[in-house]
Amino acid sequence: xxxxxxxxxxxxxxxxxxxxxxxxxxxxxxxxxxxxxxxxxxxxxxxxxxxxxxxxxxxxxxxxxxxxxxxxxxxxxxxxxxxxxxxxxxxxxxxxxxxxxxxxxxxxxxxxxxxxxxxxxxxxxxxxxxxxxxxxxxxxxxxxxxxxxxxxxxxxxxxxxxxxxxxxxxxxxxxxxxxxxxxxxxxxxxxxxxxxxxxxxxxxxxxxxxxxxxxxxxxxxxxxxxxxxxxxxxxxxxxxxxxxxxxxxxxxxxxxxxxxxxxxxxxxxxxxxxxxxxxxxxxxxxxxxxxxxxxxxxxxxxxxxxxxxxxxxxxxxxxxxxxx
Length: 324
Description:
324 residues, Cathepsin D, subunit A, domain 1, 4-stranded mixed beta sheet, 11 helices
């Protein structure tokens, strides 16, 4: 949500609010009116993003700041609780290390999830610290990657994104070839899903199929894909907002090119009934299924974990969004 508000130029209003002055001139009145309109827009977005079971808690809020503070206290807790959680997260970060049988993608997802949790509770942790931690905690089979990065780059300017791309580029060289895993899951809740999929390590990216149930739509098939850089949807009805002037092309693994006919915002309902907003989703009409980018989910603060034969997606509050 924070990223969404920043993109709309509303985050400062949501975080700090505004002062409603009584003694103003005509020019100040006009600015105040514009500010109130922006704040009402931000409050509307918050109200639209929460499930009806949560909406009652913010229904009386008259400003976006008031609604945001209610939700923040509800899901993060008091300042004392935040301090305790941060201490736990700091300890987890200090002791974090890659498991012997863990893939680099799973480990980087764990790191990303933990760092995003720390940031969501106000921790200011730099990219340099995160990159250095990852390089120190990789298993010995990645020593050549660590040496190459440390020799070729100034770590003060080397981002976690660059590290992840580099690690994923060479994962096929250090991970076992031609392994397969079968995944299955089922949820009885509205907004849940079932799915199945397989994993191959050669040239084929990890691909997982999950079936979500939308409240007001027929069943749609979604693919979780580590290969695509953006979420790609083939159905306009799923978009809350779309800018059809954003046209381009995407290239598939078989070098087939598809036309992008727009970019926008999509809201999906989780198995818990809460609404989650996906930004920068591209509209590709010729797609038969919708693609959720694992990379974009991680960069948006979600964690994507592969463990014990399951793929689990969690948000910044550790709420399970989907499990396959």
